[in-house]
Every structure is written in C-alpha cells, then in structure tokens.
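Q: My labmate handed me this sequence with no annotations at all. I'd like to see what the chain might look like in three dimensions before we decide whether it's worth expressing. Could you predict it?
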Amino acid sequence: MAHKIGDRVRTLVGLSPGWSGSFVAPAGTEGTVTGLPIPPGTSYGVVLDGDPDQLPAALEPDEITTAAGGDRHG
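A: Here is what I predict for the chain of 74 residues:
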C-alpha cells in the first residue's frame, strides 16, 4: 500500500537505536508519515510516537502498515 503524508502507521519491526541514547521503538509503535520515497529510494520518513527528538525514521514499505483509523486521506 502506498502511504501519504499525514497517514498514521504502525511499525512491523523493532527499531534499535541509531546512536547512543537515541530512541528505541518496539514493533507495533505508531507514528505519522512525514516523508515519501524519492526514487530510486523506497523508504518513508516516519516520526514515531514518543520519540523525543521527533526526527523521522527511514522505514521500508514492508516495515510499516496502516494503523487502525490511520488513513487520513481515505
């Protein structure tokens, strides 16, 4: 499924910290799509709920799914 900016998504994978002290997110963490893939890239930018720095995580399409009630454009 193609996601749009503002869609609410849920991760299907856990995310380990990218650097010391950064946010750790277990599978099932919800967030908001803030960036779309730019070819040839395929990842979405997703700001995860609870992430204090609010930097988007780069997540592949098979690593996220629409959260319950998450399609704001449907």
